[in-house]
Amino acid sequence: MRIQQIVKRIRTRSFDRVFLRVRSIFQRYGFKPNRYCTNLFEMIELCLKYKIHPTFPVTASVVKRHPEIFKEAQDLGVEFAVHGLKHIDYTQLPDRDVMQHAQKAIDIFNLHGINTCGFRYPYLRSNAHIVEVLKCTGYSWDSSNAIVWTGVKQEQFNSKIWDNYQNILNTYEATKFCNTKCLPEINDNFIHLPVSVPDDDILIERLELKDNSAITNILYQMLEEHYKKESLFILQLHPERFVYFKTALENILKEAMNRGTIWMASLNEISSWWKKRSEFRFKFENAAQNWELANMSDKPCNLEVWQAGERIVSDLSHKWTANYMPAIAVNANQKEQWLSTIKNSGYSYILDTNLNDAAVQLPENVSKITSELLDEIVKNSSEKILKLANWPSGKKSCIAVSGDIDGIDLIDFWERFRGN
Ligand SMILES: [Zn+2]
């Protein structure tokens, strides 16, 4: 491990926390994999009980040392993603080296028969460059971008604990949940899946919440707010702390299942879904001066009707007409830079033809369009517009369980410390 990386790691923890961390590693890992595997397989069993397939990003060097464990878990329906070739800060490496590591990691997974198409950078440290590398290496998705739920109340913690919490959020460069939609994003056919924090490391180690009711309370509020915003809630729970969050996880999964309107999915399932949703093309027919939506049968999910920022119909299943084509007009000049944002939003759009017939015209004088600006434009339009629902089968929001696997036994930790 490079000196700068060690310094960076220590800066996010005070010295007493470094000692506590070392002690907890010895408590949760043994010289053999048994201790870790008990937690891992119990967590898998719990997820499968609630019919959700967990996704574990795992460092390829760890797969190489324990391939049989991952094969056994995969046979149970578990999904794996790559968590680096080694557990290092990839923002510190040149792109050429990052690409080599990303490729070697896939080779190791393939060699041992572990399927993978996704990636999560260690320490959630990434940037646009190294995410671009993943696209070129053949990965389908990345889940390294952290979105922090802002409901943790500062007054419940002393200043030392709170400062420590802020330090770790800074290293994640987390986006605030209140400022974003927290949805997948597709760009050049590559999917970005934002992971939600606080995770178990923050809740248990940094905020020192040891009882399950306090953890349940926070996770429940996170679930509720993601539900209200119809957004994506990817839990990040490391299997080695399973005993500490077991009850909280069960409470959340039970609630999600009982509600019936939360899609419980794996990261591969969400990535495939978002790709399929973005490929849907709205087709309209002009009949007796009214616009009708054609080819309703192949729609991937519910269609919603929006007007002046309000959803007036969800689950559009009947024949429907409008004076204007209920779509956003996108001309040839705007197509290149704006189309991926529009597709990601799910709003109906038309390209190049009959632009004046469309309900919404995009302004000419805007250099970059964001999903927030797009919402604002649609909100200010009095005409009806169609939108694809975010989730399949009438589900209102989505939850996924992920948990990074950095090592299975103490030997893995020693090798990680040595930078292997
Ligand atoms: Zn990790």
Describe this structure in words.
By secondary structure, the protein is of the alpha/beta class. It folds into two domains: 3-261 and 397-417, TIM Barrel (Alpha-Beta Barrel); 279-394, no CATH class. Helices cover 43% and strands 18% of the residues. The chain is built from 15 helices and 21 strands. The chain has helices at residues 3-11, 15-28, 34-49, 60-65, 67-75, 95-111, 128-137, 159-172, 200-206, 212-228, 242-259, 267-279, 332-345, 371-379, 410-417, and strands at 55-58, 79-82, 118-119, 141-142, 146-148, 175-176, 185-187, 190-192, 195-197, 232-236, 262-264, 284-287, 290-293, 303-307, 310-313, 321-322, 325-330, 349-351, 358-361, 384-388, 397-402. Strands 3-4-8-7 form a four-stranded mixed β-sheet, with helices on both faces. A three-stranded parallel β-sheet has the order 6-5-9, with no helix packed on it. Helix 3 (34-49) runs parallel beside helix 11, helix 6 (95-111) packs across helix 7 (128-137) and helix 10 (212-228) packs parallel to helix 11. The longest helix is centred in the middle third of the chain and has 18 residues, at 242-259. It is globular and about 75 Å long. The termini are close together. The relative contact order is 0.14. The model has no long low-confidence stretch (mean pLDDT 88). The structure holds zinc ion. Residues 83, 87, 122, 404, 406 line the site of zinc ion.
